[in-house]
Write a structure and sequence with these properties.
mainly alpha
């Protein structure tokens, strides 16, 4: 691995970790696009790499901070985690059967819809406040 690639990977990890700790996102929104557009991985390689890297750490230090602040619902997390395992398994099986460009398109549309919804709710909040 070249030093420039290592530096880029560290930068991606730091950015994703900081954003994840700050607002609870990272893998799909930061890591996957960075791996595709900065390092040239395929969509499938980026998705698989993102999932693999999140296995051990999955925000353990960030989760500890939220736990210490009393901002954690263990029951909800347990139910979601169990369902997430099944969803991740079947979602990856389905994704790998599709054309990579279709998966990339679906990924982009989901990111766009989520972003638009968050922007609209933010604008509405400040309009109601003002």
């Amino acid at each position: 691995m070249e030093i420039s690639t290592l530096v880029i990977l560290v930068a991606i990890g730091l950015a994703a970790g900081a954003v994840s700790g700050f607002v609870g996102i990272g893998g799909g929104i930061i890591i996957v696009p960075a791996l595709v557009y900065v390092l040239g991985l395929t969509q499938f390689e980026a998705q698989g790499t993102s999932l693999l890297l999140m296995l051990p750490p999955i925000g353990i230090l960030a989760a500890m901070n939220y736990y210490q602040a009393g901002s954690m619902n263990w029951r909800y997390a347990l139910v979601i985690a169990i369902a997430f395992i099944a969803g991740g398994y079947f979602g990856s099986k389905f994704s790998l059967k599709l054309d990579e460009l279709l998966v990339k398109l679906i990924f982009g549309i989901i990111m766009l819809l989520v972003a638009l919804r968050m922007i609209v709710s933010g604008v509405e909040y400040f309009q109601d406040k003002g």
